[in-house]
């Protein structure tokens, strides 16, 4: 049984269809990237994956989502919180607003589960170290920089020991250095944590995701390997390719790139393929 | 969070459990309802002496005087100069009432003591310590949340308000006009501030639920304030005394 | 009764708005307090019970920032929230004139609560600038209770009317997806 299964999920809001017949399954340990332009339904899908939807105000018009074989409505809140965590775009909206230090902020979630003090303390210490926040443990979370706040939010999510971690455009508002920190953190997560990364561009997810999906107008239009998805005509029309692929595309337009040679998606692929093109040309 | 009255206190008062300090305040405030004003004046003097021994004594004294002085002056003027017919001439010039003088001194002594004790409590108790103490005693987590959250969000919102105002001014909003124009310009700041705040709240409440907030009627607290061995029994005694004193004050009032 | 987490967040937001209301009035150089605008907003969006609780929490939080006298006047803020919430429940925040009327009603209601606190606990004074108005009324022969009542009413009526009108305007401008989730608003839209 897959960890998460979505069958024909359709969701409407204010008369508009946000998700339209989404069907997909995610296995344990997968690293998945879901790409889509603004307004494609990414954030709504992220909320469904995390169990934030359905809620008292909103429900699906069709289809269903199950995690470990059960719909979210059948999951008691403590179990759901320990199973899946969502990290969004704006860290300031995700800080609890209850805790006066980073340490307490990270301990907030496990504390809500009523776990023993020793367990909460041990988990908090581990996660602070993992997210390179130990030196900031005594700081007020609202006085941190954007990147530090986002690492705090990720740490708070990891402290719940989720089986599925969803990150919805987590580095959009961060500078390159802070962004790099986050990417390194996510890339180095233990393999038993399933990760879903949602973004408008594959530039970051290409570093660690082995499966890509493209979302357009609430529909999943392509699903497959990075190569299959990113070089698909739908993707070329919708999202920005990684810089290496863009360079190859320009070369193809100039008549330099051989037909049939796939565009490189990573720096390593670019090194090999551009060398090959250069060799073939000389 | 620069706006709190709290100052770091390493002395015994700073180390005492926050709930014990709160019970002391409640007992002290109910005490002044039943003691004669002379006793309240002595208590106020004792509080001043205690405040002076604190590491943060200067800060406490400044706050106390800032809060008490205008109040004392107003009380004095109201009771001495207006409320009762004058029967004394100060410096041969100012007609004052002896009865009013007594009333104002009585009121000032009581207010001085209550203010002093409360300010002492706020000066030596960080809100986070008090709220952790409440959580550790299994008070519903929602209560500590609504007390903590505004303190943490205040600086953020103040900064946001300043940014919105600056942005509106670059778009032509002028604060140099008439009162009516300035009133009509208020929504230009308030609408975006409130809208952003509600959007934040929408997201934050979902994030809180996602982290199992209020999944149980109590939470585990990391590093709660340590309780002294005498703490629990002292709090019970203080609370019982508060209730008795409050009851006595009510009985005396109706009598 | 258990408030939802979103309602707790609204109460916190309202308390923050109350706290910076005074700063905003200062920037705009307006002779009003704007320190109850958040309470009125919470009351209009979620009703009188939430409004009352917001008033209480607001004064408790203010006492941590300004001083303990704020805690003593908590019943006044609670009354503001209660009356604003009742007005909203009776659909009396739909039109501008209703918001003005609500502001006047709130001013009278808060005066009823504030006078006993100010007279019997604080001897008639607060230490604020408005005490000068009390001196004037005492000087022209009014009794203490009457002087305090008139002063409180006069110093609050403009502020509460403006606050209610501001809340009326803010709520009208809110996108439906934000305002529509709150209870009295749901009643109005249905």
Structural account:
- The complex is a heterotrimer of chains A (282), B (255) and C (190).
- In chain A, 36% of the residues lie in helices and 22% in strands.
- Chain A is an alpha/beta fold.
- Chain A has 2 domains: 4-232, P-loop containing nucleotide triphosphate hydrolases (Rossmann fold); 241-282, no CATH class.
- In chain A, helix 5 packs parallel to helix 6 (176-187).
- Chain A is globular and about 70 Å long.
- Chain B has 2 domains: 12-132 and 223-254, no CATH class; 140-210, no CATH class.
- Chain B has 9 helices and 2 strands; from the N terminus they run H-H-H-H-E-E-H-H-H-H-H.
- Chain B has a two-stranded antiparallel sheet with strand order 1-2.
- The mean pLDDT of chain C is 90.
- Chains in contact: A-B, A-C, B-C.
- Chains A and B meet through helix 2, helix 3 and helix 4 of A and helix 7 and helix 8 of B.
Counted up, domains of chain A total 2
Biggest interface pair, residues each? B-C, 66 and 58 residues
**Between the first and last Cα atoms of chain B, what is the distance in angstroms?**
47 Å
Q: Looking at the chains present, what oligomeric state does this protein adopt?
A: heterotrimer
Instruction: Indicate the overall shape of chain B.
Output: flat
- Which stretches of chain A are poorly predicted, pLDDT < 50 over at least 5 residues? none
Beta content of chain A: 15-25%
For the record, what CATH class of the largest domain in chain A applies?
A: Alpha Beta
How many strands in all of chain A?
A: 10
Helix content of chain A: 25-40%
Proportion of residues in β-strands of chain B: under 5%
User: H/E order of the elements of chain A?
Assistant: EEEHEEHEHHHEHEEEHHHH
Order of strands, widest sheet of chain A: 6-7-8-3-9-10
Count up the helices of chain B.
9
Largest sheet of chain A: 6 strands, mixed
Question: How many domain regions of chain B?
Answer: 2
On the 0 to 100 scale, the average pLDDT of chain B is 89
Do you know the CATH topology of the largest domain in chain A? Rossmann fold
């Amino acid at each position: 049984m897959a960890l998460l299964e979505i069958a024909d999920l359709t969701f409407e809001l204010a008369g508009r269809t946000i998700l339209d017949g989404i069907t997909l399954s995610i296995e344990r340990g997968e690293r998945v990237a879901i790409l889509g332009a603004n307004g494609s339904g990414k954030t709504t899908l992220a909320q469904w994956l995390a169990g934030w939807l359905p809620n008292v105000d909103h429900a699906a018009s069709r289809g269903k989502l199950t995690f470990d074989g059960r719909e979210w409505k059948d999951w008691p809140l403590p179990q759901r919180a320990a199973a899946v965590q969502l990290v969004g775009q704006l860290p300031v909206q995700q800080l609890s607003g209850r805790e006066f230090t980073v340490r307490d902020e990270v301990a907030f979630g496990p504390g809500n589960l009523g776990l023993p003090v020793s367990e909460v303390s041990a988990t908090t210490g581990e996660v602070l170290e993992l997210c390179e926040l130990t030196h900031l443990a005594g700081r007020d979370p609202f006085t941190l920089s954007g990147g530090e706040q986002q690492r705090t939010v990720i740490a708070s999510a990891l402290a719940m020991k989720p089986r599925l971690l969803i990150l919805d455009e987590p580095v959009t508002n961060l500078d390159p250095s802070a962004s790099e920190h986050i990417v390194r953190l996510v890339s180095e997560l233990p393999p038993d944590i399933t990760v879903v990364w949602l973004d408008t561009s594959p530039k970051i997810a290409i570093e660690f995701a082995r499966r890509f999906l493209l979302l357009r107008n609430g529909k999943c239009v392509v699903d497959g390997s990075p190569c299959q998805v990113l070089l698909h005509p739908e993707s070329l029309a919708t999202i920005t390719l990684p810089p290496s692929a863009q360079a190859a595309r320009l070369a193809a337009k100039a008549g330099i790139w051989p037909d049939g040679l796939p565009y490189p998606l990573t720096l390593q692929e670019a090194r090999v393929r551009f060398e090959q093109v250069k060799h073939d040309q000389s | 969070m620069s706006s709190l009255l709290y100052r770091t206190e390493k002395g015994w008062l700073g180390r005492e459990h926050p709930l014990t300090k709160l019970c002391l305040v409640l007992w002290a405030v109910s005490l002044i309802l039943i003691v004669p004003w002379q006793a309240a004046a002595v208590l106020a003097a004792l509080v001043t002496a205690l405040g002076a021994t604190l590491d943060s004594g200067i800060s406490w004294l400044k706050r106390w005087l800032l809060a008490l002085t205008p109040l004392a002056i107003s009380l004095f003027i109201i009771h001495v100069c207006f409320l009762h017919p004058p029967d004394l001439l100060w410096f041969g010039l100012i007609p004052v009432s002896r009865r009013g003088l007594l009333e104002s001194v009585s009121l000032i002594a009581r207010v001085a003591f209550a203010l002093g004790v409360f300010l002492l409590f706020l000066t030596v108790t960080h809100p986070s310590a008090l709220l952790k103490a409440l959580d550790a005693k299994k008070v519903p987590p929602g209560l500590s949340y609504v007390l903590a959250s505004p303190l943490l969000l205040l600086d953020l919102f103040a900064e946001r308000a300043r940014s919105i105002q600056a942005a509106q001014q670059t778009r032509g909003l002028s604060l140099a006009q008439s009162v009516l124009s300035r009133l009509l310009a208020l929504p230009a700041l308030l609408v975006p501030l409130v809208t952003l705040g509600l959007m934040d709240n929408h997201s934050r409440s979902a994030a809180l639920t996602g982290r199992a907030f209020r999944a149980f009627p109590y939470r585990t607290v990391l590093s709660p304030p340590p309780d002294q061995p005498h703490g629990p029994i002292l709090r019970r005694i203080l609370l019982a005394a508060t209730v008795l004193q409050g009851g006595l004050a009510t009985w005396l009032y109706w009598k | 009764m258990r408030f939802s987490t979103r309602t707790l967040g609204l109460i916190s937001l309202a308390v923050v708005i109350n706290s910076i209301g005074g700063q905003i009035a200062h920037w705009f150089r307006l002779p009003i307090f704007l320190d109850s605008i958040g309470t009125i907003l919470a009351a209009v969006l979620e009703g009188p019970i939430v409004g009352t609780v917001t008033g209480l929490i607001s004064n408790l939080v203010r006492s941590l920032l300004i001083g303990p006298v704020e805690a003593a006047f908590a019943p006044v803020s609670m009354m503001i929230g209660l009356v604003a919430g009742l007005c909203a429940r009776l659909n009396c925040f739909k039109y501008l004139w209703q918001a003005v009327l609500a502001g006047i009603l709130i001013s009278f209601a808060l005066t009823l609560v504030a006078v006993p606190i100010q007279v019997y606990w604080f001897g008639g004074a607060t230490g604020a600038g408005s005490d000068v108005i009390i001196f004037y009324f005492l000087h022209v022969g009014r009794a203490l209770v009457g002087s305090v009542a008139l002063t409180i009413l006069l110093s609050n009526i403009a502020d509460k009317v403006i606050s209610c009108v501001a809340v009326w305007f803010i709520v009208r401008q809110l996108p439906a997806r934000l305002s529509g989730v709150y209870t009295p608003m749901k009643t109005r839209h249905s």
